[in-house]
């Protein structure tokens, strides 16, 4: 069984650590803030390139605002789309999804600073953060 408090805390920590795109301050509701140990907001300052490596149909249904749709099988072909001066953060369906692990391996082999998000879109939603739908 998933521990909701741990899930929210790790989602928020990942979002804060990776400085997700779109310069905004998203306030969480009080319950999510308390569950996250008092963290009331996540600053999204655009210092990393965030990629959603799930299939495009999943991206179209819902994604983190500002994330680029780069299905895992397209990462190598689209390397030129990512500036090497910025870290690349890959996310997918959550902590047990391997798409982001595979994407990070490709990126690192090609000289990029890359990490995978500990949580994916489900953790983002659980934290009460905004979700976008449709194309980039």
Q: Please, how many domains?
A: 1
Q: What is the makeup of the main sheet? A: 4 strands, parallel
Number of strands: 6
User: What is the number of helices?
Assistant: 5
CATH class: Alpha Beta
Strand fraction: 15-25%
CATH topology: Oxidized Rhodanese, domain 1
Succession of helices and strands: HEHEEHEEHEH
Strand order of the largest sheet: 4-3-5-6
SS-based structural class?
alpha/beta
Helix content: 25-40%
Identify the overall geometry.
globular
CATH architecture: 3-Layer(aba) Sandwich
Distance between the termini: 34 Å
Rg over C-alpha atoms, rounded to the nearest angstrom: 14 Å
Mean pLDDT across residues: 74
Structure explained in plain terms:
- The protein has 136 residues and is an alpha/beta fold.
- It has one domain: 3-Layer(aba) Sandwich (Oxidized Rhodanese, domain 1).
- Helix content is 32%, strand content 17%.
- The chain contains five helices and six strands.
- It has helices spanning 4-18, 30-35, 56-61, 99-109, 121-126, and strands at residues 24-27, 41-44, 48-52, 68-69, 87-91, 114-116.
- The protein has a four-stranded parallel sheet with strand order 4-3-5-6, with helices on one face. The chain has a two-stranded antiparallel ribbon with strand order 1-2.
- It starts with a helix and ends in a 10-residue tail after the last helix.
